[in-house]
């Protein structure tokens, strides 16, 4: 196993661990309650039909695809990790969210550990793919210089 493969493996493991850990925590609190991350993850996709904040849920499949493509297609994985990270942060733009089955919207009053661990999972993939791409570009430049001489 070469150095990049070892780095890739560590990136995926850390990102997945942060993601799984985030699911055990509260993710945000509104004026009515604090939401469990696991429930937001499992039923959050339904919010895409009711609010723009629901679009942030799509960061999850983008992150999953980034994990899958990391070893197969680094450029695609990097693009997916950028998109997932930006969507995860996009949630901070919203000041209220539908947080019950009645469709009632409540003001977001705080972000809890689950949200920040979830964002950290995306950030690890983002930084990891950039590091791997940088290493690849440096290696390719070195090879090109050697071939030139």
Structural topology:
Layout lengths: L2 H20 L3 E5 L3 E3 H7 L15 H11 L4 H17 L5 E3 L6 E7 L1 H36 L1
Question: Describe it for me?
Answer:
There is one protein chain. This protein has helices at residues 3-22, 37-43, 59-69, 74-90, 113-148; strands at 26-30, 34-36, 96-98, 105-111. With 149 residues, it is α+β, with helices and mostly antiparallel strands. The chain has one domain (3-148): Butyryl-CoA Dehydrogenase, subunit A, domain 3 (Up-down Bundle). Strands 2-1-4-3 form a 4-stranded antiparallel sheet. A hairpin with a 6-residue loop joins strand 3 and strand 4 (105-111). The longest helix is centred in the C-terminal third of the chain and has 36 residues, at 113-148. The chain is elongated, with a radius of gyration of 18 Å. The model has no long low-confidence stretch (mean pLDDT 90).
Attribute tags:
Butyryl-CoA Dehydrogenase, subunit A, domain 3; 149 residues; 61% helix; alpha+beta; 4-stranded antiparallel beta sheet
Main beta sheet strand tally, sense and closure: 4 strands, antiparallel
The pLDDT mean sits at: 90
Number of strands: 4
Can you list the strand order of the major beta sheet? 2-1-4-3
């Amino acid at each position: 196993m070469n150095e990049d493969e070892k780095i890739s493996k560590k990136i995926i493991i850390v990102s997945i661990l942060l993601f799984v850990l985030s699911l055990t925590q509260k993710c945000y609190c509104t004026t009515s309650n604090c939401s469990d991350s696991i429930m937001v993850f499992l039923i959050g996709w339904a919010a895409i039909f009711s609010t723009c904040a629901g679009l942030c849920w799509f960061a999850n499949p983008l992150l999953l695809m980034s994990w899958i493509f990391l070893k197969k297609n680094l450029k695609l994985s990097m693009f997916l990790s950028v998109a997932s990270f930006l969507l995860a942060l996009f949630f901070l733009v919203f000041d209220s969210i539908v947080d019950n089955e009645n469709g009632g919207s409540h003001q977001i009053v705080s972000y809890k550990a689950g949200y920040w661990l979830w964002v950290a999972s995306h950030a690890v993939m983002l930084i990891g793919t950039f590091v791997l791409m940088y290493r690849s570009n440096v290696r390719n430049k070195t090879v090109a210089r050697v071939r030139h001489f």
